[in-house]
Here is the input.
Amino acid sequence: MRARLLRPLDWYVLSEFLKILTATAIGFPILVIVIDVTESLQKYMLRNLPAMDIAKAYVYGVPETMFQVLPAAVLFATVFSIGGFTRHSEISAAKATGISFYRFIAPIFWGAAIATVLGLLLGAAMPVANSRRDVLLQEKRSGEGVTRSNFTFATEDGRVYKIASADASTGSLDRVEIDRKGYWPGYPGYVIFARNGKWSQRKGWMLKNGVVHVLTGDSSNFTVSFDSLRDRHLTEPPKNLLANQKAPEEMGFVDLGKYIESMELSGTDVNQLRVERMLKIAIPATCMIIMLFGAPLATSSQRGGAAYGVGVSLGTTVIFLMLVQLTQAVGSKGLVNPELAAWLPGILFLAVGAALLARVRT
Here is the structure.
């Protein structure tokens, strides 16, 4: 079966690529850890963090670091493996036997595809790992607060809650606004304003002193005042309302999508979150794109040897990271569709890579 799928030459090319990819994908995070420890050790000492907690925190930080450096690792592996084949005339020998350059580097493309799958798996592991890292480093508290002010959240059934203040010690809310969007006459929208709310274990949340505006959708509405109103849709106890909210980097692709929908319902600008969400897929996919960009450049590495390979790889990595930052800013401002903005660096590198690849003598 192995001989049918890949020939000995394919296995040789793939193994050389994977060796460099593995060394780079592991080496970059280690370098980042060493630099970060050097810069942050004094801060951790002031917090009296145990050495074991610091060590565990950096282990939890590996998925995020490796996720970010995977495209650079693929580029290094592509440039150095193909550069080595070029310097040792292995590509020329393959061409002499009728194997084109495109066919020769096909196993490297599959290696880049493996890196893409690894990137997606790392992206799925990042949310839990980042949360545990931040708790160990005391970047955020693991427990809940007692009070919280001016916050908004949405429930799964489409209701958006805007609360001026909440107090878990007394189980009370102040100045509550509840919005529900209507979709048809039998399911009208409404807005509820309540001066305050109170929690009880038996009845849940009871809203006090407010009004209900029912929006029928035909440019008319009617208003009902109330002294007390039980909100059976909000079942979260006070301590859950005050729990620390997850940051975007602590959410997976699906969870972040739900969070974005909730924030959109509350009128919050979510363009930056939309860019960050799409980057969770775009960055791993860039591994295959960056390979197509680096392959034709590597055929010229024989002129400068390892120094040329390092220069090309580092220069391309810096440009790619700058483009990611630039497109994040453009997408966040709404100048470009946020999802498209996340893919712009990859699209640009794909276009340039395709042009360079077309010029390679096969």
Q: What stands out?
A: The chain has a mean pLDDT of 82. The chain has two domains: 2-140+270-358, 147-243. The chain has twelve helices and six strands. Strands lie at 147-154, 159-167, 172-180, 189-200, 204-215, 221-231.
